Hints:
Elements: H1 4-12, H2 16-23, E1 27-31, E2 36-38, E3 46-60, E4 66-73, H3 80-83, H4 88-93, E5 100-113, H5 114-120, H6 125-151, H7 154-164, H8 166-171, H9 174-181, H10 185-195
Antiparallel strand pairs: 1-5, 2-5, 3-4, 3-5
Amino acid sequence: xxxxxxIFIKYAQIDDKMWxxxxxxxxxxxxxxxxxISVKDNIWINYMYxxxxxxxxxxxxxxxxxxxxxxxxxxxESSVGNLFVTDLRSxxxxxxxxxxxxxxxxxxxAVFSHDSITSLYHESYTWERVNRIFAQLAYIQIDEYYCTxxxxxxxxxxxxxxxxxxxxxxxxxxxxxxxxxxxxxxxxSRIRQTCDx
Length: 197
């Protein structure tokens, strides 16, 4: 489990003075299971770093079908894309989000505004570098996800998910795993019967 400070030091080599300057803008927020952090059509203004808990983002199609787009969690199985609970497209374009964000386990988030980090760009090039690196890492993760989704069958996608994130799979309901794979819970049950023997 990594802290926000550890992430910044790891990827951008910020020093203690820079962290002190930035940390003044952080607000700690807690949500409980069942809360919605944001719903479709909200416009994002904040970055949120997940200290603990489990969150999912989801999309509901016009015909009412629900698809889980991403899971956010902070464990040894996490990547940077799983730690930042943010609709980056909405944040950067200031257009309404197409996703909702639901809390699956009680969570704690470190929240800081896009404006607060943007204002630090004038203080040091390092802050621009932080933003660029995180945007690149998030893009890579999303690109890998969509490549997997488009090139693998749901069964192959499930096997990969279970191999790479076994602890996360234990924490998720069958419904949420199915909506992430783009199948019904019944189809997932059949897939699991052939994979979990």
